[in-house]
């Protein structure tokens, strides 16, 4: 009886010790991971000049740690693109959407566009950055949902440079301040097609140098005599006609498009972005960008080469690739480009 009791006591003690050892190991592991996250977070803050008070710092660190866990899980899987920590990693997607995406609902559908199709065949690879001096460096919209303005200027800069041989950075701020009568909403959203209409009927867009970017709305002070580019007409590509987008980029110039950016996209780093989470209808688009080319991966996956407006620290030096030919995230629902008045 005593022997059995001692045996049970011994086994219980061993179990407790094993549990305590396991608990201690897990605690040390957690502390180690927290230390790594904290170290990475401090490095990220230093890189992006972030300073928080103590309470806000710990709140942001928690969000950063959760995002890092999500990124590590994604990168450990078999995906066509990788994710990385960046300037947005201490933000929730709700916060990110508020500051960097279109917050006013948009419906950009052009049921029947006025793009004239051209016969192929078209090359397998096109990149307007390599064709000449036609694409300005990647810009940064800051904490303002003005992606639509950057998509607009990027396209007009390119088509004007192709027509004239002169690449002039154009003013996003003018569009934010002055294009509201064309159903654009400054830092809360807009559409490139409507911005092109504004430029057409307003008789021009000033240069970035003459009307510099602020990242918030101010009183419109457009000076017609200082316009650096003008629009003769606006070409809308019929919704869901991704082949027409290819024709345009292959034969004419870069094109704007809008699509649905999700939480996973904010941490994109490299590879061909694809998603099963995003919607693909014109009423759901929340981000506007510029397609400057396209290509095909070694595994046969076709993709678009896209210029973003979140600075060069994001993605592929400010660019991203997204799967082509499947209306990925609604990218083929809303595409347009201007005809320059030169």
Automatic annotation (TrEMBL):
Q: Which Pfam families match?
A: Inhibitor_I29, Peptidase_C1
Question: For the Cathepsin propeptide inhibitor domain, which residue ranges apply?
Answer: 41-96
Which keywords fit this entry according to its UniProt record?
A: Disulfide bond, Hydrolase, Membrane, Protease, Thiol protease, Transmembrane, Transmembrane helix, Zymogen
Parts of the chain that traverse the membrane: 12-34
Is-annotated flag, keyword Ligase? no
Molecular-function annotations in GO: cysteine-type peptidase activity
Q: Could you tell me which residue ranges the Peptidase C1A papain C-terminal domain spans?
A: 122-339
**Highest taxon above the source species:** Eukaryota
Q: Give the family from UniProt.
A: Belongs to the peptidase C1 family.
State what protein this is by name.
Cathepsin H
User: What is the organism field in this record?
Assistant: Anabas testudineus
């Amino acid at each position: 009886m005593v022997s059995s009791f001692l045996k049970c006591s011994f086994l219980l003690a061993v179990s407790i010790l094993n549990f305590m050892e396991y608990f201690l190991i897990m605690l040390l592991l957690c502390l180690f991971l927290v230390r790594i996250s904290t170290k990475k977070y401090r490095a990220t803050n230093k890189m992006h000049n972030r300073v928080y008070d103590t309470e806000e710092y710990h709140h942001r660190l928690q969000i950063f740690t959760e995002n890092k866990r999500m990124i590590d899980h994604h990168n450990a899987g078999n995906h066509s693109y990788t994710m990385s920590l960046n300037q947005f990693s201490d933000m929730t997607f709700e916060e990110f959407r508020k500051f960097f995406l279109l917050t006013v609902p948009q419906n950009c559908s052009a049921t029947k566009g006025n793009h004239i199709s051209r016969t192929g065949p078209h090359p397998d690879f096109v990149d307007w950055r390599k064709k000449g001096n036609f694409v300005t460096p990647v810009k940064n919209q800051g904490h303002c949902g003005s992606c639509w303005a950057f998509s607009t200027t990027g396209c007009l800069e390119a088509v004007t440079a192709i027509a004239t041989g002169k690449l002039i950075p154009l003013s996003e701020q003018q569009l934010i301040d002055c294009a509201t009568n064309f159903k654009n909403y400054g830092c809360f959203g807009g559409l490139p097609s409507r911005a092109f209409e504004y430029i057409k009927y307003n008789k021009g867009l000033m240069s970035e140098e003459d009307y510099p970017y602020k990242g918030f709305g101010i009183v419109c002070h457009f000076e017609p005599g200082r316009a650096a580019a003008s629009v003769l007409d606006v070409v809308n590509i019929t919704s869901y006609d991704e082949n027409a987008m290819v024709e345009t980029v292959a034969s004419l110039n870069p094109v704007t498009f809008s699509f649905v950016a999700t939480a996973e996209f904010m941490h994109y780093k490299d590879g061909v972005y694809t998603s099963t989470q995003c919607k693909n209808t014109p009423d759901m688009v929340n981000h506007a960008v510029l397609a400057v080319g396209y290509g095909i991966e070694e595994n046969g996956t076709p993709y678009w080469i896209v210029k973003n407006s979140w600075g060069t620290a994001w993605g592929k030096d400010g660019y991203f690739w997204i799967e082509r030919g499947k209306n990925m995230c609604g990218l083929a629902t809303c595409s347009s480009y201007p005809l320059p008045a030169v």
